[in-house]
Write a structure and sequence with these properties.
Layout: H1 53-80, H2 116-120, E1 136-137, E2 147-148, H3 150-154, H4 160-169, E3 172-182, E4 186-195, H5 202-215, E5 220-225, E6 233-237, E7 249-257, E8 260-268, H6 274-287
Antiparallel strand pairs: 1-3, 2-3, 3-4, 4-8, 5-6, 6-7, 7-8
Length: 288
């Protein structure tokens, strides 16, 4: 980049000529005698103060060179030393316990009733509540022998694409489902949505999202906590009334246990009470 002079070009100033008039003065009388004063010693020239910038620069340069030299010497000393051998990563003495317990002191494995992982790692469909008396199984094209695919489950949300992406990122594992009918119009759908155990809390997060959404739903007219669940709730919706159609009533329950989020939906053309949905939700909670 070419630097340009910042001084503007212009006509050169005209040099000023200074004329000094010299007037000869003739003395009218002899000048007075000058009395010499005391003779002083030799006057030395004023001493110019020494600049400190160059000295500071030399000191800083010496400090840097000293540090660099010390580092180089340290590396040289370390390089001349023999390497220190490290212990092997695999050592039999690190096993725990150091000595196996006698057979009569080995604790018994947890029963299935206390080992939640053994209970949920099996056939998830066995954790679905049994079909209540007076109900019949409903054939659902979306179900395959009691299983529901993740993409099918995601279609029940308003934004199926975003719901599917969210479920996959939350490490969803599988969905077991059942559907029953009673009378002419009453229908119940039960879903067990299981997530993989690990650092993520997919089941708890999914249940919390659904409960948060239901809390602000204007169509919900009643909401009660599900006893003994910690975070489960039952909801009753207001009737969906449209001219030319039968009224549609709905109730819903959401509860979470471990890595499973359970959801129950009930539909009918007649009023659904809180007791109806609560009874099914409590039974499902006991199975979990």
């Amino acid at each position: 980049m070419e630097l340009k002079d910042t001084i503007p070009d212009g006509p050169a100033e005209r040099p000023v000529q200074i004329e000094v008039a010299v007037q000869a003065i003739e003395p009218t009388a002899a000048p007075p005698a000058v009395v010499p004063g005391p003779v002083a010693g030799p006057v030395s020239a004023p001493v110019k103060p020494r600049s400190r910038g160059r000295t500071a620069l030399l000191i800083a340069a010496a400090a840097v060179l000293g540090t660099a030299g010390g580092t180089a010497v340290g590396y040289g000393v370390q390089a001349d030393r023999a390497p220190t051998p490290l212990p092997a990563l695999s050592q039999p003495n690190l096993a725990y316990p150091a000595k196996a317990l006698p057979s009569d002191q080995v604790p018994d494995p947890l029963p299935v009733s206390q080992d939640r992982q053994m209970k949920t790692d099996g056939d998830l469909r066995e954790l679905l509540i049994d079909r209540p008396s007076g109900w019949t199984d409903q054939k659902q094209p979306r179900l395959d022998d009691g299983w529901m695919s993740v993409d099918t489950y995601a279609r029940d949300f308003e934004r199926a694409d975003r719901a599917f992406e969210y479920l996959v990122e939350s490490d969803i594992r599988r969905v077991a489902a059942a559907s029953w009918t009673k009378g002419r119009y009453r229908t119940v759908n039960v879903w067990l949505v299981q997530f993989r155990s690990g650092a993520r809390t997919g089941a708890a997060d999914h249940a919390e999202d659904q409960l948060y959404y239901l809390t602000g739903d204007d169509d919900v007219v009643e909401s009660d906590p599900l006893k003994g669940s910690g975070n489960g709730r039952c909801y009753v919706y207001k009737a969906d009334l449209k001219p030319g159609y039968l009224p549609l009533y709905r109730a819903r329950a959401v509860v979470q246990r471990g890595d499973i989020m359970a959801e129950i939906n009930m539909f009918d053309t007649r009023t659904i009470s809180k007791k109806d949905i609560r009874t099914l939700a409590e039974r499902q909670l006991e199975r979990l």
